[in-house]
Amino acid sequence: MTLDLYALPVTHVSGVKGKKAEELLALGISSVGQLLDYYPFRYEDYTLRDLTQAKDGDRITVQGTIAGVPQVQMYGRTKSRMLLKIVVDNLFVTAVWFNRHFLKDKLTAGTDIILTGKWDQKRLHLTVSESEFPGARTSQTGTLQPVYSVSGSMTQKWLRQVMKQAVLQFGEMIPEVLPALLLRKYDMLPRKQAIVLLHLPGNMEQGQRARKRMVYEELFLFQLKMQAYRALNHSRADGVAHPLDLPGVRAFVRSLPFTLTESQKNVLAEILQDLQQPHSMNRLLQGDVGAGKTVVAAAALFAVVKAGYQGALMVPTEILAEQHKRSLDRLFEPYGIQTALLTGSLTDRQRRDLLASLQMGMIDVVVGTHALIQEDVFFRRLGLVVTDEQHRFGVQQRSILRHKGMNPDIMTMTATPIPRTLAITAFGDMDVSTLRELPKGRKPIKTYAVTHSMMERVMGFIGREVAEGRQAYVICPLIEESEKLDVQNAIDVHAQLQHAFPQYKVGLLHGRMTPAEKDDTMREFSEGRVHVLVSTTVIEVGVDVPNATLMIIYDADRFGLSQLHQLRGRVGRGEHQSYCVLIADPKNEVGKERLKAMTDTNDGFEIARRDLELRGPGDFFGTKQSGLPEFRLADMVTDFETMEQARDDAAELVRRSDFWTEAAFDSLREYLRREHILSGDLLD
Ligand code: ADP
Ligand code: MG
């Protein structure tokens, strides 16, 4: 029986008690195991260096001989600056101490001294942060010292000491978690050795090797959860095995006003295949804006309805719900499929009636906002939920459905392509289908970045496009955090444009309008009765009006890159050449990068990659519902290759039948149980 270090109070490490133990607790450390898991975020290198090789600004440790008398300048009673000449590697150097004048008496000429500090090559100054005499009992010289994040009255020095003590007392007892086959595969350090070296590395190489092992472990365990979840889901037979009428689906596809792209065909085949399986589908459909995700969803919904089930399409806004309902009606009408719209603007009575029809199975496909699958909504035989332009369908929503006795197939469509880096992290538990091409005949959108001084030409541009029968969007200036001012802006711009173009109809869309008003405007725009649509960002997602060819965005430098790409994606949806004009303040340096990316490329995957680079993973999905895990050591961007390896290894492992039974994998299965994957809790 091994000792569980996580059950052992941290006070078992000698030297940890009282106030110090409390301060560790504030860092989330209450057990020995947690202490050992508190890794340094970098190392300080006290290896002796040759000063003549050092570069300006380096933090270095050098040894020299004192060649003068300390010169002290006092500022007030405690603040001081002390200068001292030192000969280092045949150079005359000035060592500078701040507020350390009390050292003065120890600094006698002719004595050797070791100094650590920042090197100013121009002035031959070394600003000293630490110093010691050669041979000192607690010498750090020649070592690598870990740097931890500390708080309260805790010092770096104290924590280093405690960590060293913990390693001495308990290092031998750190259990292995990775199976031997993986340790062998990558020639990795055993866990106990890696942890010891992370805290007490002999040199950088050892520190790196230890880090590498622990990064792998962290990513592997994360991926194991994902892959085990996926494998278990696939092996469960508690979903709907849709008895599909494949010839019927083929006929539906043939009846579409266009032929599907190869990508759409492949993706649809993957989905149909999944729908027939007895486990419940958990699939992500991604593709660039305009790649044609909606029609793929429509075909899947059609297939499910023909198999005798109901479908639901969940979208983030009422405008979109309304639009999707219209396009589905157009496609489904010849087949007598009943659709309905469930949004917040129904009257109580309408809502009651609708819910009753849903429950009785008189409605085949319901389109609506998030509330669709919640609360008092019951289906007779729900077979497929599609969510559009929305964050992932969460475990929680799945469990709401389960509690109602439903376990439908789930398909999530993303608003923007997701860089591969993030996809295998955030969506590792899902099967992914990707639309890789746009429908044929689309002309790439031409994008221009201009300044406010060119407004007149921009107006001329709007006039010409509308005169040719096209339509234009104008997205209004963005005032951070102030919906009220955004609305005012939209109202002003609308008035200006209507004044400039009295012969055309200029529409207005903003967040303060009622859903019915918004729908009216949208309908007029999509039917071509409104020529120019002025809008705040409520327009952003999913709107599809192929005749619109011009997208003007005010204050483009204030929008995020993915959002700009989404907005641009509202045009370029038909046969006509389309344009995107980004009006921006040339002085905004941050915005410049984004504008450059926009004018450089139309490729959503490339845009996503750059967006990730500019914003970092946390912000990519927006902070709130990122769905991204937080790693202790790993960085999901720079450690991406390791993440991929870990994913492949985890996937391979859970496919082995002995993984679920053999003693060699006990600790991993135990881990899955602790994480509520194995018992199935996640799905219940
Ligand atoms: P997104 O992937 O951005 O949601 P949509 O589904 O809105 O894209 O499709 C964009 C436009 O392309 C729509 O007008 C749609 O009818 C059209 N479309 C979809 N597939 C094809 C195709 N295979 N050929 C031609 N047009 C298509
Ligand atoms: Mg769409």
TrEMBL record:
It is an enzyme of class 5 (isomerase). Belongs to the helicase family. RecG subfamily. InterPro entries: ATP-dep_DNA_helicase_RecG, DEAD/DEAH_box_helicase_dom, Helicase_ATP-bd, Helicase_C-like, RecG/Mfd, RecG_dom3_C, RecG_wedge. One of its GO terms (biological process) is DNA repair. This is ATP-dependent DNA helicase RecG. Plays a critical role in recombination and DNA repair. Helps process Holliday junction intermediates to mature products by catalyzing branch migration. Has replication fork regression activity, unwinds stalled or blocked replication forks to make a HJ that can be resolved. Has a DNA unwinding activity characteristic of a DNA helicase with 3'-5' polarity. It comes from the Bacteria. Keywords: ATP-binding, DNA damage, DNA recombination, DNA repair, DNA-binding, Helicase, Hydrolase, Nucleotide-binding. Its EC number is 5.6.2.4. One of its GO terms (molecular function) is hydrolase activity. Residues 454-613 form the Helicase C-terminal domain. Pfam families: DEAD (PF00270), Helicase_C (PF00271), RecG_dom3_C (PF19833), RecG_wedge (PF17191). It catalyses: ATP + H2O = ADP + phosphate + H(+); Couples ATP hydrolysis with the unwinding of duplex DNA by translocating in the 3'-5' direction. NCBIfam families: PRK10917.1-3, PRK10917.2-2, recG.
